[in-house]
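Supplementary Note 3. Input sequence used for the single-chain structure prediction.
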Amino acid sequence: MTAGKRKLISPALRAAMLWPHTWAGVTLGGLLMLVFFMGSLAVFASEIDRWMMPDTRIGAAEAPEAAISLDRTVVPLVERLAAGRAVRDWYVQLPDERRPVMALRVRTESGAAGGMATAGGRLLPPVGTLGASSFFYPLHYSLHLRAGFVGYWIVSFASVAMLAGLISGVIIHARIFKDFFTFRSWGQLRRSLLDLHNLTGVLVLPFHLMITFTGIVIILPIVLPAGVQALYGGDVQRFYDDALGNYNRPRAGTPAPAAPLDPMLAEARRLWGGGEAAVVFVYNVGDAASVVRINRDTGDRISLDVQPVFFDGVTGALLKYQRPGPMVAAHRVMSGLHFAAFEHWPLRWLYFLFGLTGCVLIGTGMLHWMEKRRVIHGLPGVGWRSVAALTCGTTTGLLIATLAMMAANRLLPSGVPSRELVEVGVFFLTWIASAVHAALRTKQDPPWSSQCAAVALLAAACVVLNWITTGEHPVRAAAAGDWAVVGVDAVLALTAAGAWSVSRRLARRARPEASTLSRLTDHA
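The predicted structure, written as discrete structure tokens, is reproduced below.
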């Protein structure tokens, strides 16, 4: 290192960075663990949905082979879902490689209805679950606290703290290059935790910087609304309409017949230069002001620019097709980098593994802080036990809650009223129970061993329950080419094996005495 660089990153600057780095991790580590873990699951949301919705595991005979006709296939399904009620709006998410069924939603004058159907127009039974797409994924970015965008604000604040933690971590570590090659799994636990924390932090640093920064950029108009407030009077929806090229108009109140949808679909494909449609919306159905919106599939590109095309729902005339400006295009590329909606399986697996590496980074940082404080202060006090129980509840407790929800998904009968809400209740009650268990059992150590054993048993139970309730074990799923189910079962089996091994090792680990701890030196 040159003399200039030594002066730029002085010991005083490193010392100043240590405080925010430490306390950002200790106070927000649990929330960041939730955000990173749910974000990792969201990478494979379609595959987890397929595991949690067995009726959508259609065979190759019903998989889409050609473009679906909106007029001949989708419109009759909309009429069936409406059941004779006057339809106001509807949309359909068309099938693709990862999700070979259609998802429909219909809003009528007396309520809403939804369902899934095959490409051939066969309406499937109600799925009875929110799945990963509607539960794990929103939990990642909004905590399901949508009123007043409270959840967005909380996650955004944690993301900024994560970004600050990453940058301060780079400044703190004077031996960042050496740390890349250093991991001592023997000797002191605290040393090993710090090595693993440094290793995961350095190895995946570019990904963690990218995913955190792009996550903040996506919701920037919500958390930094000064520009939207000045130009749009705080109307975020109108801002997005202008920025993304949206179009809408109120109902005219004059009945009018609908134009055929398939010619509009063909025109949208021509405008996209051969791109495929992903979602079709029809607003103001049966009205003279009806509007049809068709979004492009983004699986063949990084950018999340869906290039919406708007048609008059009565005449079929093109109303609006606006390419994004340079700023919006850049925003869409950063959104695409964060969402990973593109079709690239190796990259998708890297996103999943790097996201879990973020969980390891956060978890080892919290564990290292706990071990360090235990050495300094000897016997754990109330504050230490509180942080330890919170850490346990937000790591193994979160895993237990997720697996309990998946097990409940396989155990609950299909006729249970509000079945999807019962699953959500199982998730939160199990999570609370895990945290309470950690709080009650934390004396000198949190109950890591017993909670890891619970993780192992639940993960193994999910694989077995899927086999029993659907008859689809991994070998049969592989023979049928159902790789989504094979992948989820394989990850569950690996989780079970890993958690059981960790549980046994922790159970055999000798607990250090306080007098011994007080003699240990800190190398950090």
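The mean pLDDT is 88. The CA atoms of residues 16 and 172 lie 9 Å apart.
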